[in-house]
Predict the structure.
Amino acid sequence: MEALSLSELAGDLPRPGVLCTLAKVVGSAPQAPGAKMYVWADGFKGTLGGGRFEAEALAEARRLLNAARPEAFLREYILCREMGQCCGGKATIFYEPCPRRRAVHLFGAGHVARAVASTLDGLDLEVVVVDDRAEWADASAFPAKTRVLRADPAALAAAAGYGALDAVCVMTHDHEIDFRLVDILLDKPLGYLGLIGSTHKARVFRARLPPPRRALWDETMRCPIGRKIPSKSPKAIAISVAAELLETWACCPTPAQAVHA
């Protein structure tokens, strides 16, 4: 089994997951202290030594994955005949839950969305781009780790189970699509909701909403999106959006119940 790399441990592996570290060995064991195995719902990488011992660790990690409020813990194993081991030693594993990453969902794959994805690349964030236009939903135009989905934006937004770990930036090519998305997304418990456009667009969209939903707009919507800058350059706008995301959402504490969703 291939060993885990530092870059993978820094954020390249699927989330949520559990990092299993061989913390202590007494006597003989298949691996030395420090050996690591990362486990997610349908896979794992790394090894703690194989055999029944590793199978037990995998099962324990997946139990932790399914826990309502997973917490890190230590567990000691005796490497005896009952475990299919003849080492005769003891091994202690540290199980550490790794919650899912925060995700930025970009509705629209135009010039600004491409610049935003590029600006966010390298941060510990998932970036998902949604567009129903084949010529724009082109993965080759985005950083390698960006997920590009060719799908109906409104249908996808309506079905999505977004929460506090999700930020949505609405920046499609069509104002009516933007409005439909806003109307859907105002009901989602998002960590961040932004809409590209002018202050005039913001006033028009808000006026189209029924009065009860205008209160939701006032509470959650950021339009114009991003920090206020005197530039219409896609890259400059992307930097302003990234700065706002980091300041107001990505670097802020998240409620514990959202972390394990």
Summary: The chain has two domains: 14-98, 102-249.
